[in-house]
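Reviewer 2 asked us to include a model.

Predict the structure of this chain.
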Amino acid sequence: VVGVDFSGQQLQTAASRQDQRWKACYKNIKWIEGDALDLPFTDHYFDAVTVGYGLRNVVDKPKAMQEILRVLKPGSRASVLDFNKSSSFFTASLQSWAIDNVVVPLASSYGLTEEYKYLKSSISQYLTGLNIMFRSCENFHDTENISRHHVIHNACLRTKLECT
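Predicted model (structure tokens):
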């Protein structure tokens, strides 16, 4: 298992948390500082790629998706988990309220005010459904939006068996 992040500080935090875990499966993670736009791996290196709440912070999302495709073995999967801008007024209003009144205050109580302050604005500027972007990446197919309420989006993608 390999974890990649642009921030060396984030990787240090991840490594220290990894050291605190007692299960053997947590000991098998290698942390690498890297750029999602230029991943430091050879073509067809991974059986799977997951991104959790990270794609929103990448400037060139289509380029990042192409990099994910490049490092995936043919026929393997990528999964992207992130908050999603809802097209439902009710859901969007509830999400906005929850961020202002639950998420940010709770994060602030742990000293993470700055880290979560941008969340609301980033959601409002984020894609309405990541599948819009994924479908523009021609070498991905079988995109699945497995979000239940269109607030948190998990898209699972599979690469074509023969990538071009």
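Residues 146-154, 160-164 have pLDDT under 50 and may be disordered. The chain has two domains: 1-34, 42-159. We have added this to the supplementary material.
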